[in-house]
Amino acid sequence: MKNNKKNIAIIGVGSTPFGDLFQYSYDDLVREAASTAMKDAGIDPEELQAAWLSTAFPEIGVFKGRSGMDLAEPLGIFGIPVTRVSNFCASGADAIRNAANALAAGECDVAMALGVEKLRDRSPQDSIVKMMVELSHPFYQKGFTAAGTFAVYANRMMHEYGVSREDIASVSVKNHFHGVMNDKAHYRTKCTIEQVLASPMVADPLTLMDSCPTTDGAACVIMVRAEDVDNSKHKPVYIDGIGLSISTGWDLPFFDSGHKFLSFQATRDAAAMAYRQAGITRPMEEIDLVEVHDCFSIVELLTYEDLGFCRTGEAKDLIRGKVTQLGGELPVNVSGGLLSCGHPVGATGVRMVVEVATHLRGQAGVRQVKDAKRGLTHNIGGPGAIASVIILNNEN
Length: 396
Hints:
Helix content: 25-40%
Number of domains: 2
Number of strands: 11
CATH superfamily of the largest domain: Thiolase/Chalcone synthase
CATH topology of the largest domain: Peroxisomal Thiolase, Chain A, domain 1
CATH class of the largest domain: Alpha Beta
Strand order of the largest sheet: 3-2-4-7-1-8-11-10-9
Largest sheet: 9 strands, mixed
CATH architecture of the largest domain: 3-Layer(aba) Sandwich
Radius of gyration: 19 Å
Structural class: alpha/beta
Order of helices and strands: EHEHEHEHHHHEEEEHHEHHHHEE
Mean pLDDT: 92
Number of helices: 13
């Protein structure tokens, strides 16, 4: 398949803070992220020709994000196509994918992808878990929780590969260390392995500090074709490849007798697509920084292997050797990841792209990855069924 993604440039990025943003409305979040990205791109709202809105859970809390109208109205961008995208935790990345495809097809010249979620304006009784149980699949969702699912993978990795409880906790320690340097992160406090292990148990062996919080926040990117980049005012970042895969249904892998609970096929499939488009054959050598979907600490370890950064069973060696810490050979989640930034579900994939683009521009300040030229973002959602991988480069 011919790759047109390299013809697409990100020329503007913006995000809100992430956290318990009770002082912000949904529309406030949209406006702040969008206005920052448009100012960065040097464009006015009337120059936008198409936009994609990512909100994964409009049914929770503020009941916003059910259609593109909830992006058009606060920005006043009427008379153009505005589409709402929802694909679980890959929603934001999918919004970027759709915008890139529309630009590549010549359907528009300037496109916006914006992700936003307002998850804190609700009572504890109106949780995502409750919504999934009551409104999702009538059989497969009963008794299902994200923590319980990933705990199974954690126990299998400990049993099969000698991953220790301390290895898993080390992911949280690393990402909270990074989060201290990110003034937009939900949590900005260092922690120790002992503190992670002593925090309340959620689903054995995963504790509270192995788990990301639900969060409010928004992030936005402005995109054009590479030929339309104005180097006098833009500092572009180019899309090398985008992979998106839905590799299982609701009943898999949990009812697949051959599944070993040691890998996510969706991540491997999405990575293969993105690597093929970008011409990457040696990920560890050819990528400079990574944002992965550490909704739980164990997922980061699983993803090291699924993205081909190490061989099967060797993820523990990367975390033990501090390979993935800032200053290491392949820094991962220098933003603080979901564990520190939180998880405003519809915004997370876009937030990751904003983070990597900021490093590729050399604008990340104290957490800047030195000489970063190519970066990768990864999301996984649903019951491990949906995954996205996006590869960015600062050279076309």
